């Protein structure tokens, strides 16, 4: 029996748990310093692999076998498989919607309707309404968000600020929608009811969104970029010369949003939207299809073009270089670097969880909690840390929820406080981390790095700050006894 006990894995020390994190921070900082904007195209992945390798070596020292570690990696990557498949489908969607004229039509009409001074605030509101309706920040960014980024380019407005407004609006709507998966997950983990959770989230979410809109209005009025009306007219002219512009081109968008609003599964919904875009292109954009086919108009050549839009993306040559850079994108192939980053990040997170490093770190945080304010603040930072270490917003809700739920009950704090706190940080900070699945998705969709748009994603970082203020002032921190009195 003594020999068997000596072969059992040992729990890591706090120092051992910190070593991979410290190394990861150093490696990622070095990656950004050495490679700049291109760090997400390989260097960051290698940084994650180096930190993971060191974590594995420490695991070997603690008597973990490679089979144990490999099983953890397999499980961790499988958690993100659904997200990776959706990302591939979104790549196809972008390619065919560029080919079909769906996104160009949204850009064309948007250039007519949106004023530059109100553009950033309008972007946040539009994305908020769409995300609230369909319950998906990803779908909102991949559809309306792409068009708004194109409009910003046409108006010579800041792309990082626009991306920040898209992310702010998309996550506001996602967070407050009963159709959202994270909005359903948080109360399930904390142990309360969905609509009670949504109502209670309003105390931190609504003030933050109002403040964000004020900030976007100020940024819009302070933007000194003079919009060249002639340039806008030229851009619209290039669009109308290259595409058949009509409201009919928006039908794939309406179909996709309708399916999402009915809570149809995301993967088949997005891929159906991509296929519908390809069909729309063959029916309504024969000249664009023929241009991609080098002037060939045969049925086989047209089908090949639609197929390539799904796989390799869309390419077109117009008289406007700016328009070319905006439209030439998409395809599953364009998402492969994104998949690489997600696999690398999820593998690192899975290793950290399987070897006990995350539990050791987060339980250490719990031991430092002294008051209700410090408990809520610790929950917020733990959710953020889980987003950094596991690269997945679902893990950033489930792991802290599992760790802190008993402590909230012990301190007589209502479960709605916990579920709100999990969303205030677990959901919202995920899009601010470059290697998190949400940050990677936004980068691959909006073509702006989270490091660039994070300062302007006002809503996403303001909500946790408001939650901390509430925590230490006691405002809207409901106790279990108060909840029972309300429902009695």
TrEMBL record:
TM helices/strands, residue ranges: 12-34, 46-64, 76-98, 118-139, 146-172, 200-221, 242-260, 266-284, 339-358, 378-404, 425-447, 453-472
Domain Na+/H+ antiporter NhaC-like C-terminal: 169-474
GO cellular component, one term: plasma membrane
Subcellular location: Cell membrane
Membrane topology: Multi-pass membrane protein
Primary residence: membrane
Key words, A-Z: Antiport, Cell membrane, Membrane, Transmembrane, Transmembrane helix, Transport
Gene Ontology MF terms in the entry: antiporter activity
Family membership noted in the UniProt record: Belongs to the NhaC Na(+)/H(+) (TC 2.A.35) antiporter family.
NCBIfam families: antiport_nhaC
Protein name per Swiss-Prot or TrEMBL: Na+/H+ antiporter NhaC
Organism: Pseudidiomarina taiwanensis
